[in-house]
Amino acid sequence: MSKGTDFLNKDREKFKIAVDIFSSKGYHSTTMDEVAQAMGVAKGTIYYHFKNKDELYLCTTQLGISILEIMAREAIGQHTDSREKIVALIESYLLFMHDYAGIAYIFLRELFGDHNRRDFFREATKSYQKLIQNVLEEGQRAGAFAGDLNAEICASSIFGMIFTVAIHYLQVYGELSMDVVKDNICKLIFHGLLEV
Amino acid sequence: MSKGTDFLNKDREKFKIAVDIFSSKGYHSTTMDEVAQAMGVAKGTIYYHFKNKDELYLCTTQLGISILEIMAREAIGQHTDSREKIVALIESYLLFMHDYAGIAYIFLRELFGDHNRRDFFREATKSYQKLIQNVLEEGQRAGAFAGDLNAEICASSIFGMIFTVAIHYLQVYGELSMDVVKDNICKLIFHGLLEV
Amino acid sequence: MSKGTDFLNKDREKFKIAVDIFSSKGYHSTTMDEVAQAMGVAKGTIYYHFKNKDELYLCTTQLGISILEIMAREAIGQHTDSREKIVALIESYLLFMHDYAGIAYIFLRELFGDHNRRDFFREATKSYQKLIQNVLEEGQRAGAFAGDLNAEICASSIFGMIFTVAIHYLQVYGELSMDVVKDNICKLIFHGLLEV
Amino acid sequence: MSKGTDFLNKDREKFKIAVDIFSSKGYHSTTMDEVAQAMGVAKGTIYYHFKNKDELYLCTTQLGISILEIMAREAIGQHTDSREKIVALIESYLLFMHDYAGIAYIFLRELFGDHNRRDFFREATKSYQKLIQNVLEEGQRAGAFAGDLNAEICASSIFGMIFTVAIHYLQVYGELSMDVVKDNICKLIFHGLLEV
DNA sequence: GATGAATGAGCATTCATTCAT
DNA sequence: CATGAATGAATGCTCATTCAT
Questions:
Q1: Mean pLDDT for chain D?
Q2: What is the model's pLDDT at position D34?
Q3: Chain B 28-57 residues whose Cβ is under 7 Å from strand E
Q4: Which H or E run contains C98?
Q5: I need a surface site. Which of B4, B98, B143, D113 has the fewest CB within 10 A?
Q6: What residue stretch is flagged as signal peptide (chains A, B, C, D) (predicted)?
């Protein structure tokens, strides 16, 4: 944990400010002056705690993403049934989108972003998708999920679908009605589109 | 159609160059010098055809996105059965990702991007999701798809899942094996995860 | 007479357009594109007639200033009395300001302008002031004007006062009421401020 | 008082440098690089204190013009007699031209300049002319000056004449012999041209 | 620890000028 | 004679970073 992460951890208000600015303006359009002013400190102070802008951004994002990781692991941990685990994961992702939409935006943006930081976010994504994938494979071995499905592809699908729907909702309706979204995603994931 | 779109339309090579650079380096990290040099023209030439960097970027992206729209509409047009339409849409999206991955990156990046250009991309996204949504609702009326599903949420889900999986594949395996991905997504979408 | 002067002389409409643009926007803020568009010709056409922007500007201004010279010489020529000559000169200057305010602005601006073109305008000014000075000296020799006055200083004074008042009027009242201005300037010049 | 005015006020050397460059090369032909180099600071330093080139120019000119205002008000304040006030005003203007010729050039140039900044300079000019006008009206009420003269026109005349003569002298002789100029202008203003 | 004035490399943009048609 | 697409040198401005206090 770097000096900077420490700084943001101790002062969660400043963390939120950093997330707000970076998520609403993007990395490049956010200036260090703006961050400093929004945080109510001098620019030099930020450079005292962070080596450079990139470190500030990365620390901010890392801290935010670690929250998602904790939420997801906790969600899974509370269940033994694969299906219930999937539901819990969906719930936790949606909750994260609801509570930390700024971070989510940054995360997705960087996931599709340019070379510079993509690797870091790819790793994070892989680990989240792996979380889903593990539950899927576990479920397949237990005979709960169809064995002929490629768990990797399904995990990636579920990951992408949740975030896309959540952001669609946030953008179109301004708010995320979690129950409706959760129910529909669960139905789609578990039973598919076809009428039986 | 602006002067700039004209320029890119007539010289598809330059269009591809613009897409390549913007998708690999991102908007901000791409300099007009680089674009000019890569296109083999003077910087002034670009400014003769485009008002500024933003217009160059937007024209490039718009042209790219219009390709997706054409592909998607053609795909749907060749089928009457709702289920086959969905399959065709998935195929066309994957084909687009395969042939125009750069555009797809830009598209997704901006979809989650900062306020400046988000609106433009949101509209484009909405129109694609609407395409899916219409097919879904048509299928529901025909009794092919489960009537209790929210078509809007499902459309957004399908949209997000396809792109996410495709990019995951491109990032992890460097190439998109379309058949495998298509088959799995179809299975998941049509029948769901559960073993029957 | 250069090719350019010819061009402007033959097409007085284009001359007026050039004066309008240069006087309202200044030399540097006027682009060749603007001039070409306002004249209704292609940029290349202008470069066909003028070597460069500077020549266009100089030809335009020279032509304008020559008008003032003709007006002033005609005014003087119609009188033999020194005092009447002065009145006629004032009238002609005011008339010029009234009819060719654009030229007058350019003239004065350049008179106080930077090094580049100052010399040319200085010469023109000197010649106008000399015109006044000659009349003054003539009048002094004839005993009409006070002999202890420095004719050079007085000529310069009169020149400056006329233009300044005229522009003051144009700027403050939007229009030049020539009679009022002329009367007052004559009174001031001939009798001075003091109550007798 | 803006940050920039502060900067120039504290470091009068830099103020003089700015005046020198702007007056000798004009606004457009002066580059920020030149100003920075002449001042011995980095370009960024200038942009730290001034929002842009225009603000630098305006602050510089404003500061210069305020000097003229102070000089003029001091000159008037030391006298009670209207005629003596006029003489003092003339003296102060000539002194200003002598000490701050650069500012005077900028001032006059802008007074006849293009639309952009003209308004600002017009206001300044009006206030100076008003200064003269007030003294003239005061003198008229006291019976010292001819009552049938339009004070506004006379004030503008006097203003223009002083500056024009002073600049004429500077340009022709390279130096301003103040006594000669002052005496002649006073004679002309007070008694007029006519031999009595 | 904290500050904010100073820096300068980097970049978008402008525009006079050219020249092939 | 006339055109207008192409050029590239020139320049205003930004902003991450440093460092003396």
A1: 90
A2: 96
A3: 30-33, 43-44, 47-48, 51-54
A4: helix C82-99
A5: B143
A6: none
Q: Would you list the DSSP string of D96-119?
A: HHHH-HHHHHHHHHHHTS-HHHHH
Q: Please tell me the total count of domains within chain A.
A: 1
> Do the domain assignments include residue B17?
yes
Domain boundaries, position A38: 3-191
- State the distance between the two ends of chain D, measured CA to CA, in whole angstroms: 52
Residue C9 lies in a domain: yes
Summarised one tens digit per residue, pLDDT across range D147-157 is 999 999 999 99
Q: Is the residue at B20 inside a domain?
A: yes
Phi, psi for A13 (deg, rounded to 5): -60, -45
Is residue A14's beta carbon less than 7 angstroms from any atom in nucleic acid strand E?
A: no
Taking only the tens of pLDDT, chain C with its 196 residues reads 577 788 888 888 899 999 999 999 999 999 999 999 999 999 999 999 999 999 999 999 989 988 988 999 999 999 999 999 999 999 999 999 999 999 988 988 888 887 667 777 788 888 888 999 999 999 999 999 999 999 999 999 999 999 999 988 888 888 888 899 999 999 999 998 777 7
CATH number at residue D9: 1.10.357.10
> How close B156 comes to chain A (CA, Å)?
5
| In D100-177, alpha helices (H) | 101-111, 115-141, 151-173
Backbone torsion region of residue C92, taken as left when φ is above 0, otherwise alpha when ψ lies between -120 and 50, otherwise beta: alpha
For residue B196, is it within any domain?
A: no
Across the interface, which of B125, B190, B194 has its CB nearest the CB of A193?
B190
Number of Cβ atoms within 10 Å of the Cβ of C157: 28
Give Rg (Cα) of chain C. 19
Q: What number of residues does chain A have?
A: 196
Is A148–B26 a contact, with Cβ atoms under 8 angstroms apart?
no
What whole-number distance in Å separates Cα of residue A51 and Cα of residue D165?
62
